Amino acid sequence: MAEARRFALVDCNNFYASCEKLFAPTLAGRPVVVLSNNDGCVVARSAEAKAIGIAMGVPWFKIAATAESQGVVALSSNYALYADMSNRVVEVLSAFTPDLEVYSIDESFLDLSGFRHLDLVTYACQIRKRVARWVGLPVCVGIGPTKTLAKLANHFAKKRPSFEGVCDLMSLDEPTLAHLFSETPVDEVWGVGRRIATRLSEMGIETVEALRRSDPVWIREQFSVVLSRTVRELNGASCLSLEAVTPPKQQIMASRSFGSLVFDVEDLREALAHHVSRAAEKLRFQGDEAGALTVMIRTNAFKPAEPQYQRTVTLPLATPTSDTLHLIAVAHRILDDIFRPGFAYHKAGIMLSELRPTTAQQANLFGLPPQDARRQAAMLAMDEINRKWGRGTVRASAAGHRAGWQMRRDRLSPAYTTSWSDLPTALAL
DNA sequence: TCTGGGGTCCTAGGACCC
DNA sequence: TCTGGGGTCCTAGGACCC
């Protein structure tokens, strides 16, 4: 039998809120929340904000008055800052193992199977210390023989102070594990969301321990192969491997709620052109072209009393392309088809799908070149300029400048680390 | 006034084929 | 008892993740 693997999950604590605190000493000790786009919902909370009971995902407008009277500082999402800090963390982690999977903006899996000869708790403490010292962010480390258990271990490392930020499940004996698992609700398991947790609970499975003890074959019949795999992983059988290389995306989406309601088709045209521009740029960076484009427009579903309208239409492209201008034209053609006047539009978006590598392109039936070479060169030049001088330096005129649809970010902090003009100033007194 | 955005995978069911 | 059976492709929808 193969020797058990060792996975670690390194997760930044309260990542967005921690990034904000790092560059704003005035926030020290204060409850801080970070809001989603359009300053909509709470998507991150500092320890102080959690302590006063602010829930994850709650709409800010519902709690703003109370929260502000409690001294809560709310900030808009500053993705430029978070992405840059995330890269710094990954850079530090990379020195600890060559086998690393960047799972999300604030989490990475490390394969530590080759480090069995070391005391992994000590190793993980070194990881924590170095990230804190070199980047300035707090992280917790969970270790286990499978990714699912490493995730769970990370949860214990975060929630149980006795672990001091590092939990290696493989260093615990079986009775301790069983005790820990029987105190933990089943929805803490990676892959068990609200729906499945409810159904499991109806079957009498309420804790991690109960799920671990259930029969994977029965689980497969009742639920799916996915959940039965989770059960096996909870029992130490590694089913999910480390994905060191990010597979290319199969679809690229770009959508946004509007900063205020939109009635005018011209605003929708601009918003769609803007979304297409962003998605097409990602598409070209990935070296792909798209074989289909989807346009979505919708009114506000949270206002059932208002007239509702929603359409999503996908158009296959005769010739796959990554040309922003061509894709904008297609998006506008779809919009002309589905737009209905008289509705208060709340959100619009696009999706590029049936992606394939640009090199695989073929001439179409009529023998025309698949893409005007000069246009392609223009796209690449545009990307180069935008990479060098900042996003949006050169853009399609159709993406325009009307204010009606732009999102709100009234509480944005400076781009401390990615913009010269936003560099923080330190004073030595 | 005000409720995010971007992804993946799996399943079920229908159409179609031999 | 048993009304053929099994494969593929596609789509829509559901579930999950951060």
Automatic annotation (TrEMBL):
Record keywords: DNA damage, DNA repair, SOS mutagenesis, SOS response
Keyword Cell division: no
Family matches, as Gene3D superfamilies: 3.30.70.270, 3.40.1170.60, 5' to 3' exonuclease, C-terminal subdomain, DNA polymerase, Y-family, little finger domain
Record has Transport as a keyword: no
Residue ranges constituting the UmuC domain according to the UniProt record: 7-193
Assigned protein family: Belongs to the DNA polymerase type-Y family.
Protein name as annotated: Y-family DNA polymerase
